[in-house]
Amino acid sequence: MRQIDALKSPRFSQISTFARLPRCSDPSEGAVFVGVPFDDATTYRPGARFGPLGIRDGSRLLRPYNPFLEVYPFDELNACDGGDVDTVPGYTEDTLRATETLMDQVFRVTIPFLAGGDHSITLALLRSAHRAHGRVNLIHFDSHYDFWDSHWGKKYTHGTWLKRAIEEGLVGKVVQVGIRGSVYSHQDKDDGASLGITSLDVRKVKYQYQSVVETLNSLQGKVYISFDIDSVDPAFAPGTGTPEVGGMTSFEALEIIRSLKLDLIGFDVVEVAPPYDVSELTSMLAANLIYEAMSVVAKRRRR
User: Fold this and answer.
1) What is the pLDDT of residue 9?
2) What is the pLDDT of residues 131-160, one digit of tens each?
């Protein structure tokens, strides 16, 4: 499985797939990129349904060799683009079921790299990961806690998925990175501790970076990573639905992913909303985060 050669076919040509990789109909062919274009569980600005399209276009500059991790991730993983989940606009729980139906097949045979969509989709992904791997540890990059019990009496939104995942016993240890911004009550912080979540706020990333990396790499066993693009400062990633000022830089985000030495079984980037993007900054960053995660997996496999 090889990329279209950019020295023979200009990057702005041909049908968009992730990193100009081949389309694959069988998930057993290799590591699979999958889009989940859904944003009806957002609580503020919509637009993340266009995330997979934007990320595919933002991935056109990705080249075969990663000089920081010294791997050819696409070749090592035999990577391909598996298309999108057929979501059900307006119906969150139906979309979660449709996502599970597809991803149950994928998780059993390979490592998926996914593009949302809003953060509600991660609940479906963790359900499928649990069926394939049992309870997994979770690294959650975000500016928000996402363990609220409900919004407007509704249990399934992009701000409640983590609470549901814990209630359903899908995850073991949970570490959050990049938390910041105002919350509804001081109780929110206490709720995280009662749920057993380790929350590393943005100050930890800025002033205790090495400690953050060490905490993440201390996780034993299988790990799933969910990366909400709003964990990055909107100066670097403006195209998102619930932006919070004062976040990580794009460099910090990429460096943390590059530094991981984990048994990674899945990775998603969510909340990329191209209608609010500027010069594809957010889409390109999301594509590069997926590239770095693929490279981490490829390097571990080589070892």
Assistant:
1) 86
2) 999 999 999 999 999 998 888 888 999 999
Contact 71, 294 (CB under 8 A): no
Give the model's pLDDT for residue 78. Answer: 93
Return the CATH class of domain 29-86+95-302. Answer: alpha beta
At a CB cut-off of 8 Å and minimum separation 6, what does 85 contact?
Answer: 34, 35, 36, 37, 38, 95, 98, 99, 102, 103
Going from N- to C-terminal start, the domains of the chain cover: 29-86+95-302
The pLDDT value recorded for residue 91 is: 97
Q: Distance between CA 143 and CA 18 in Å, rounded?
A: 26
Looking at residues 60-79, what average pLDDT do you find?
96
Mean of the per-residue pLDDT values of the chain: 95
Task: Give the three-state DSSP class for 52.
Answer: helix
Task: Please name the residue that has the structure tokens 């934007």.
Answer: 54
**CA–CA separation, 126 vs 124, rounded Å?**
5
DSSP state for residue 20 in the 8-state scheme: G
Q: List the one residue out of 23, 20, 17, 16 whose CA is nearest residue 8.
A: 20
Measure the CA–CA gap between 121 and 216, rounded to whole angstroms. Answer: 23
Decide: pTM greater than 0.85.
Answer: yes
How many residues make up the chain in this entry? 303
The confidence band for 1, taking pLDDT boundaries of 50, 70 and 90, is low
* Residue 264 three-state SS: strand
> Residue 293: CB partners within 8 Å, gap ≥ 6?
113, 225, 257, 264, 267
Contacts with 185 (C-beta within 8 Å, 6 or more apart), sequence order: none
* Higher local confidence (pLDDT), 230 or 303: 230
Distance set, CA 11 to CA 6, 28, 51, 115 (Å): 6, 27, 20, 21
DSSP three-state, residue 66: strand
Please report where in the chains the tokens 């509804």 appear, as a residue.
184
